[in-house]
Amino acid sequence: MKPAPPNVALRFLRWFCREDYLEEVEGDLVEVYESHYQKSPAKAKRKFIWTVLKYFRPEFIKAFNIGQNSTTMIQHNTKIAYRNSLKYKNTFFINLLGLATGLACALLIFLWVQDERSIDKFHENDDRLFQIMQTFDLGHTKETVDWNPMPLSDALKNQMPGVEYVTAAYPPSNYAYPGKIKLEDRKVKVRAKYVEKDFFNAFTYRLLAGDKSTLLSDKYACAVSEDLATELYGSVDEALGKAFSYELGKYSGEFTISGVFENMPSNASIQFNLAFNYDLYTSFNPDIMRWDYNSPCVYVTLTEGTDTDAFENKITGLLKKNFPETEGNLFLRQYSSQYLYGNVEDGKQTGGRISYVILFSMIAVFLLVIACINFMNLATARASRRTKEIGVKKSIGAKRSDLIIQYLFEAVITSFLSMSLALLIVYLIMPQFNLITGKQLALVLSAEMILSLIGIAFFTGLLAGSYPALYLSGLSPIKIFKGGPIKSVSAFIIRKGLVIFQFTISLMLILMVFTVARQVEFIKTKNLGFDRDNVIFFNESIPNYTTFKNHLETLTGVVSVSAIRGDLTSGDRNNTTSLEWEGKQEGDIVDFDDVLVDPDFFSAVNIQILEGRGFSDDMISEENSLIFNQTAIEQMGLEEPIGKIIDMWGKNWTIVGVVKDFHLESLYKEVRPAFFRAGTNPGNAVVKIENGKTIEAVQAIEAYYKEQNDGLAPDYQFLDDTYDRLYAAEQRVSTLSKYFAGVAIIISCLGLFGLAAFTAEIRLKEIGIRKILGSANSQIVVLLSKDYTKMVLVANLIGLPLGYYLIHQWLSSFAFKIDLSIWFFVAAAVLTVFIALLTVGFQTLKAARVHVLETLRE
Amino acid sequence: MKAPSLGEFEELVLLMVAALHDEAYGVSILESLKSKLSKKINISAIHVALKRMEEKGFVKSRFGGITADRGGRRKKFYVITAFGKQALDQQYSIRTDLYQQIPKISFN
Fold it and tell me: Which chain A residues touch B35 with a CB distance below 8 Å?
């Protein structure tokens, strides 16, 4: 018995190989196989299969007869599609334009969503990289912060199994310290963060120079980004081992570069270009190395297979062991989830930007569906025009499946044409879109992208073509040839339903645009409790603050100079719960913001003092004075706060004043309880400028700053700009939703336009007869518009409550929000009806004005 | 028309076809080439070369008789054509000519 070669391979060969070659090839292959088989059967089989695969090349593949009939049918279908598009140009362009706009919007949103989802996702151990979060149980509410006790990272390193890397980072959250590097006669601005050396293991930024084992090994060792290294020393390799001096209060010093890391990509939420040793930060603040002092962020990479729930329990246990009185509970948050799921409520991650991602994804799908509906409606409405074609085809033996394929094919062709047009649109408006979204998106035609595009176009085509294909192919040839109108109640109802659906969505989008725009406007103009017009705010703490202040106050146009620790708008500040006051109950915990300010901060930015007084300039007498905000006093439950003694950090403090609440962070949040301490150099300067003298004042300040800082430009911003940026996300959603709602309306109207034109056309004779019998143009317009008006009204009936529910949901994420007024809904409803009527009215009027003779002449 | 070219591997196969005269078919060419060149060759390479050369007119082929071997499939025998021989001669003369132009070089 001869050994048989692998059957599958042989059958494959017989399937594809040219018949005139097959016998020779097969024979030779078998002969070779047989001789190999004697040596090693397994190897012979492998070799045989491999060799068969090698024949799979054009020279040996037979001319497949891909069904001559189907090629003919494709040609035929293409021809019919082409002729139809020529014959009914209106319909064709409405379809093409609608689909192209829908696809273009969907593509833009797709790119945007892809970018949003990529943020922070690029670290190698993304699934194991966590950030430790702390939730304080404050009785009436829970508060979650991303800062942790100072000794936590060391404790994790030494006492906790299941941890691969731990790194503490300061300042917390995504902040970095602005500062300056002095190098010979140059100064370069940097953004610095204090990190432990495992930072570069947990966050996998490659080291371009230097060694991971010696990175940040010395207190004055640092690491710089590729760009900074190049800016300072010309190249990455040059930079290694070099020293520069850095100024930031007590952290100043001579630093040696122990490593260069690759630049952080734009989709990383933590951005800095200079990494200092965390030990430097702790060694300068030995008094805060306590479990009750929360400051740094702590990031951990867990070893594979570590149970996160168990780990959370263990670290909370660790915290409670070292600080039994704490109300804090630690939990883990996957680092990369902070961008999209940044909001925490009641100690649980709830949502955040993901809601925008979902919102826009939904808009994308809706826009596509609206465009597809146009296609369906026009195709089914015009069925009567193609009934003869269908009847003839069916009579001479076309199967229903042939017709379905034909109509799907037409839809897919239109969809692919639209996709090409959409790509052109996307390409053209990409710069504008980037401007609005603040991203650097680009349409990169990678293999993956092209596949997605083809997939989307194909899917859209199938969706748009599905209903017409099923409907048209189902028409009976007998009915068609008997003559008389093709009346299909179901098609009529579905068509109406689809139009209603389109307008419901458009209405909801319009409602959303109104609300978002109003809410954004509301936030931007809301009284924050302090002046923000004509106020400039320095992003750095000013060296020699007193001299700076004294000089600036002499400049024309400068009204006042003051300072506050930390950023005015970010909410990034120290906080503490270790306050004891008269009448404090067991279990009363208030988490206060601890804000260091210049003594005249309140008067400088017009914050109202409700009770007591502000700080005096005499720093010595104010050393133990505290000023609280309203919220703090309310939460402490003090009746007559002035003069009361507060026990904090082992010292007695006196309450000297109460100020009106003002916002120090986003309006998503309520005002937090806060107390203020006076300091001579509290940090970032805040300068109020006289109205109308902005330019000269700013120029004078800049000039003075440059003089003092070796020609370096100051890093400041106008406070109102900063606020605008704080709500950039809302502003973007507002702008984008305007455009998308506009597009939705346009596409819907396109469809309506097409339908109205069609109805007018088939009722042309009716119109003629009515006119002869004395109907006025206006009556005819009413007659023709009635149906569409009804549809749009029904859409309003559905869309208004649905829209109310949705915007109510959206607004509930704001602590301060607009009241929903009935006028929004009225305006949105009137607007949709008006636009729809305008569209239909234009068509019907045209129809009504046609000359009677023309309509009736055959 | 440009004269069809003769690739390096094709030339080897063509030489083999000529050498094995009337006994040249896929496997015999494969075996002889393998032993001469002492390197691994896949049968598919031989077939590709043969088909190309047949198209160019360097070889022609005929089927052998049916035997019980090879699962009953016929062998396809190849013989060199006059045109093929001419191509080989040309190739040979170019090479010899060039070879003779090499000056006496001593490698030490």
Answer: none
> Model pTM greater than 0.80?
no
ω into A324 cis (within 30 of 0): no
CA angle, corner A18, sides to A13 and A20, nearest 5? 120
Domain count, chain A: 4
In a domain, A798, yes or no: no
How many C-beta atoms lie closer than 10 Å to residue A509's C-beta? 27
According to the model, what pLDDT value does residue A424 have?
Answer: 93
A185 and A293 together in one domain: yes
- Comparing alpha-carbon positions, the chain A residue that sits nearest to B27 is A28
- For Cα atoms A559, A560, A563, give the angle at the middle one, nearest 5 degrees: 150
Q: How confident is the model at residue A526 (pLDDT cuts 50, 70, 90)?
A: low
Q: Write the pLDDT tens digit of every residue in A532-550.
A: 677 777 777 777 777 777 7
Give me the interface pTM, i.e. the ipTM. 0.86
Helices (H) and strands (E) in chain B, counts: 4, 2
* A617 and A577 in a common domain: yes
Task: Find residues 4-63 of chain A whose CB sits inside 8 Å of chain B.
Answer: 21, 23-32, 51, 54-55, 57, 59-60
Contact B73 A32 (CB under 8 A): no
A716-761: pLDDT as tens digits: 777 777 767 667 777 777 788 788 888 888 888 888 888 887 777 7
Residue A688, φ and ψ in degrees, nearest 5: -100, 135
Domain holding A24, by residue range, is 7-54
Q: Is B71 left (phi over 0), alpha (psi -120 to 50) or beta?
A: left
Average pLDDT of chain A is 80
Mean pLDDT of A559-569: 72
Residue A192's DSSP bridge partners are A177, A274
The answer on A173 and A261 residing in a single domain is: yes
For residues A176 and A322, membership in a common domain is answered with: yes
Task: Provide the number of structural domains found in chain B.
Answer: 1
